[in-house]
Amino acid sequence: MENNAVITINNLVKRFPVGGDYFTALKDVDLTLNKGEFTGLVGPSGSGKTTLLNIIGGLDSPTEGQVSVLGQALNDTSHSERARLRRKHMGFIFQSYNLLPVYTVFENVELPLILNKIDPQERDKMVAQAIKWVGLSDKRDSRPAMLSGGECQRTAIARAIVHQPALVLADEPTANLDAENSHHIMKILVRLNQELSTSFIFATHDEKIMAYLRHIIHLDDGEIIEDEKIENPKASA
Q1: CA 1 from chain center: how many Å?
Q2: Which of 53, 130, 177, 209 could form a disulfide with 204 if both were Cys (CB 3.0 to 4.6 A apart)?
Q3: Can you tell me whether residue 46 is helix, strand or coil?
Q4: What is the predicted pLDDT for the residue at 2?
Q5: CA trace torsion 58, 59, 64, 70 (10° rounding)
Q6: Do 42 and 97 contact (CB within 8 A), yes or no?
Q7: What DSSP designation does 78 have?
């Protein structure tokens, strides 16, 4: 990776077929994000932020343009290579938690390590550390039905960062939470960003999240309308 860049995007266009025509969701997007950034893709519904997040995560492909993530040119990688990149080097946080209801907190958090074939003893240490990071050590044997919404999202965060990925992508991670839990979640993520140098990218229109961001990419109608660096975020960890 040159110049410490985690993500480099050039001339990105994304079109979706609609009837006999096309809808252009992203138009000529150019973007560079560096290691350790705490970035938000911000804009109203339909602005293209989730589409851009999905392309960065290799979950969708551009119609035109070049996308490089963690030194990999996604245009030139197979489906299985993109899956391996996600599994090894990325974490994902969604607004709907996506926890397995029959698994405990510990077992949900352990899943990425099993997929990455980490040794069982090492897995135990890594899971215990991740659960401690999010303040859920006393809930490690609880199942999702026994947890609050905030605790479910903290479990999802632990699962996303247990393998200490280089990049975490979060799509409206506080959408289902009240203000107190939202701020608690964001303070955890700021701390992890600082301690692990993990790069975070949020797709959001939640002002509570925006108050923590140090880099905001403003999107509207599929275009970047402003690229804003913030030296002193309104909220602090």
Answers
A1: 20
A2: 209
A3: coil
A4: 46
A5: -10
A6: no
A7: -
Read off the tokens for 214.
């140090």
Structure token digits, residue 12:
């990105």
Residue 235 — pLDDT band, cuts 50, 70, 90?
Answer: confident
Distance of alpha carbon 135 from alpha carbon 127, whole angstroms: 12
pLDDT in tens, 146-161: 999 999 999 999 999 9
Task: Map residue 33 onto helix, strand or coil.
Answer: strand
Domains, in order of start, for the chain: 36-64+78-229 (3.40.50.300)
pLDDT value at residue 3? 60
* Full-model pTM: 0.91
Strands (E), the chain: 5-18, 21-34, 38-42, 64-69, 72-73, 90-94, 167-171, 199-204, 215-220, 223-229
| CB contact at 8 A, 37 and 227 | no
Strand partners, 34: 5
Q: What tokens were used for 19?
A: 């009837």
Q: Nearest Cα to 84, choosing from 97, 72, 68?
A: 72
CA angle, corner 207, sides to 201 and 210, nearest 5?
35
CA nearest neighbour of 37 among 221, 228, 177:
228
HSE value, Cβ hemisphere, 13 Å, CA-based, for 23: 11
Q: Which tokens in the block code for residue 46?
A: 């339909």
| Both structure tokens of 60 | 């969708």
pLDDT band at 1 (very low <50, low <70, confident <90, very high): very low
